[in-house]
Amino acid sequence: MLHRVRAPVGGVRGYEWLTRRFDRAAIAVTSVTQRGSLPQYLGTILLVLVLVPGGALLATGPWGRPVHLWDTPLQLVVGLVTAAAALLAVGARRRLTAMLLVGVTGYGTAMMFVLYGAPDLALTQFLVETATIAVFVLVLRRLPERFSVRPLRRSRWVRRSVGVAVGVVLAGLGLVAAGARTAPSISRDFPEQAVIRAYGRNVVNVTLVDIRAWDTMGELSVLVATATGVASLVFQRSRTGPRPRRPPRPVGRRPRPGGRCGCAAVPPCTPAAGRSSSRWSPG
């Protein structure tokens, strides 16, 4: 004879209990991770970048062939100027100064492309960097002149450490990627194949138009999108007129009456001329 066995927890109660647990776990995780701080979000992403690929780099070793730093002294000069501009941009207090220094890093990258024999990439980089600077100038006109909030001293060192670690990891990834090639480069056959297959002796033109035509179309699409964005900002400003610049937010505490915070005491309010300072009372 079969007997019905009663479960210790019903299906409905078990489902509700599990749902409540998931809700509490979601609230706990959200309260820790979603703090509404953009530096914290970026720091988390960059730390994951440092730990995961950086740990893989340290665990794999050795890192391929020896490093060849530069071919000509001009490459060293351009690299030093680009690095100096990046460091100065980090410590800039004015938005326009920081934007111009970031633009110097972009132009330095384009010069590196020129020195390494990639004029198509250099042209794209020059055009995009110029358009980006124009967009930044139009946007910065609506923002305060200076960065209003500066991080604390301890926070600055943390951010600098994270930035240096990210730079080291990305440099290591570049070295590993460059030294991981086992087969000869296909670019050795470009001069011969340009004549045989594309009937052209200008290897650069054949490469841009025939061999890597899709890449060229993608670069042109980027330029068209950038130019469209700049034009829309310019036309919008011409229709609506210039907007006044917002004043920078004051930093520090307001002085209290009596000078308790070390500031000058605020004089008490005086009644306006022609008005009585006594309060009105009924009766």
UniProtKB/TrEMBL annotation:
The chain crosses the membrane at residues 41-61, 73-91, 98-116, 122-140, 161-180, 217-235. Pfam families: MbhD (PF13244), MbhE (PF20501). Keywords: Cell membrane, Membrane, Transmembrane, Transmembrane helix, Transport. Residues 240-257 have a biased composition (Basic residues). It is a multi-pass membrane protein. The keyword Membrane applies. One of its GO terms (cellular component) is plasma membrane. Residues 81-145 form the MrpA C-terminal/MbhD domain. Residues 236-283 are annotated as: Disordered. InterPro entries: CPA3_Na-H_Antiporter_A, MrpA_C/MbhD, MrpA_C/MbhE, Nuo/plastoQ_OxRdtase_6_NuoJ. Gene3D superfamilies: NADH-ubiquinone/plastoquinone oxidoreductase chain 6, subunit NuoJ (1.20.120.1200). The keyword Acetylation does not apply. Residues 160-234 form the MrpA C-terminal/MbhE domain. It is found in: Cell membrane. PANTHER family: NA(+)/H(+) ANTIPORTER SUBUNIT, NA(+)_H(+) ANTIPORTER SUBUNIT A. This is Multicomponent Na+:H+ antiporter subunit A. It comes from Micromonospora olivasterospora.
